[in-house]
Amino acid sequence: MPARVDLATVTPSITLGALDGRYRPVVAPLVDHLSEAALNRARLHVEIEWLIHLTDTGALPGAPMLSDAEKEYLRAVVDSFGADEIAELAEIERETLHDVKAVEYFLRRRLDAAPSVLGKGTALGGNGVGEIVHIFCTSEDINNLAYALLVKGAVTAAWLPAASAVVDDLADMARRYAAVPMLARTHGQPATPVTLGKELAVLTARLRRQLRRIAGGEYLGKINGATGTYGAHAVAVPGTDWEEVSRTFVQHLGLTWNPLTTQIESHDWQAELYADVARFNRVLHNLATDVWSYISLGYFRQRLSAQGSTGSSTMPHKVNPIRFENAEANLEISCALLDTLAATLVTSRLQRDLTDSSTQRNIGTAFGHSLLALENVRRGLAGLDVDEATLARDLDQNWEVLGEAVQSAMRAASVAGATGMANPYERLKELTRGRRVDGPAMREFVSGLGLPNDVEQRLLALEPGTYTGLADQLVRHLEN
């Protein structure tokens, strides 16, 4: 057998996963937040802001006050962090074999280069400022804040807008089809009719509730040293209120301060967030399976322009619900990762172990599969048309669903004093259970019950397509 090309050696490199391969355009917005490069940029941001914060607050006696130009120079190191800097940092890490230490050395190089930009008199060029870099910090002081910033950015700038757009589209569909009657199927069997819009509104409300939880989530952070005691801080500079310095710094970053930690920030906020996102995913999965079923029943038609030209490689007549099937698969993968993150991150042996370090590197993948599913659901919904004729035909073939209305009207009439209304459930069960009943048969049955005239006329006028109660009005709750 001839030797094959070793694909691992092909240039440019071939991606191992689908998110960085065929689905890259959809998940690309997350790269700016949850990639390895974004993590290192966030670490650099935290290190620089810590240096500036210590000098601004006077927490370190003898430390210079930085000028606006010097602060601008430091912050530009983060803003200009690109391909060349990523490569340089990777080179440093190959020597340090420690990612956070590599960031520290990278920043020290920029301090050494400051005089060539700001002039020899800059405070950034001496050992004094250099010794402030990473002072009193364990790696987790930098990492927990960097991850909190990254996840917050990913959720607020990428995931939440995409999720909200899908839910808004679904809400628009619910309003549009608020009055379109549809046969319900409890346990897969014909049941009391609803409206298509009301069913979509139920899913919309469920998804919105999860979005509110996610949008209101806290992102916690700490910077308190090797075991959360400010031990080195208090010994080296006992006159500084280190809790206040820590609190104001974390809040300056836009995060919520956690005053009680071990070496690590406990990650409980991450577990809460990932559980909420996973729950959103699962409700969206419910939407995908329901819409798939409605397509199968013929309630929805799929526009060819929205699905592409090929439905099946061998059956040319088919238009497959691929968007919803793709979404199902990606939501399941996302939930599996989010569940693992939430379960793993809340536990750390004694004061520290490194399981969280490896686990958190999968946050981007978890959100990537969810983002991909959102894109597929949105495109899938946009390609649907309601077949009202099929809905109406299905309703007309199931007059037996009016049995609930008739027996309930009999009960109410009996309570109001009408006679001859005994055993309403059993009488309707005998008429309808396990058999199809058409309109004439149902009306004949109603006419023979001896109901009060107004009740009888109301039931004789009832059809499956009009037996939808307050369904169309309930959609208005989406506005609340």
UniProtKB/TrEMBL annotation:
EC number: 4.3.2.2
Catalytic activity line of the entry: N(6)-(1,2-dicarboxyethyl)-AMP = fumarate + AMP; (2S)-2-[5-amino-1-(5-phospho-beta-D-ribosyl)imidazole-4-carboxamido]succinate = 5-amino-1-(5-phospho-beta-D-ribosyl)imidazole-4-carboxamide + fumarate
Residue span, Fumarate lyase N-terminal domain: 27-327
Annotated GO MF terms: lyase activity
Residues in Adenylosuccinate lyase PurB C-terminal domain copies: 348-468
Keyword set, alphabetical order: Lyase, Purine biosynthesis
SUPFAM superfamilies recorded: L-aspartase-like
EC primary class: lyase
Pfam families in alphabetical order: ASL_C (PF08328), Lyase_1 (PF00206)
Classification via InterPro entries: Fumarase/histidase_N, Fumarate_lyase_CS, Fumarate_lyase_fam, Fumarate_lyase_N, L-Aspartase-like, Pur_lyase, PurB_bact, PurB_C
Listed pathway(s): Purine metabolism; IMP biosynthesis via de novo pathway; 5-amino-1-(5-phospho-D-ribosyl)imidazole-4-carboxamide from 5-amino-1-(5-phospho-D-ribosyl)imidazole-4-carboxylate: step 2/2; Purine metabolism; AMP biosynthesis via de novo pathway; AMP from IMP: step 2/2
Family of the protein in this entry: Belongs to the lyase 1 family. Adenylosuccinate lyase subfamily.
Function: Catalyzes two reactions in de novo purine nucleotide biosynthesis. Catalyzes the breakdown of 5-aminoimidazole- (N-succinylocarboxamide) ribotide (SAICAR or 2-[5-amino-1-(5-phospho-beta-D-ribosyl)imidazole-4-carboxamido]succinate) to 5-aminoimidazole-4-carboxamide ribotide (AICAR or 5-amino-1-(5-phospho-beta-D-ribosyl)imidazole-4-carboxamide) and fumarate, and of adenylosuccinate (ADS or N(6)-(1,2-dicarboxyethyl)-AMP) to adenosine monophosphate (AMP) and fumarate.
Protein name from the UniProt record: Adenylosuccinate lyase
Primary gene name: purB
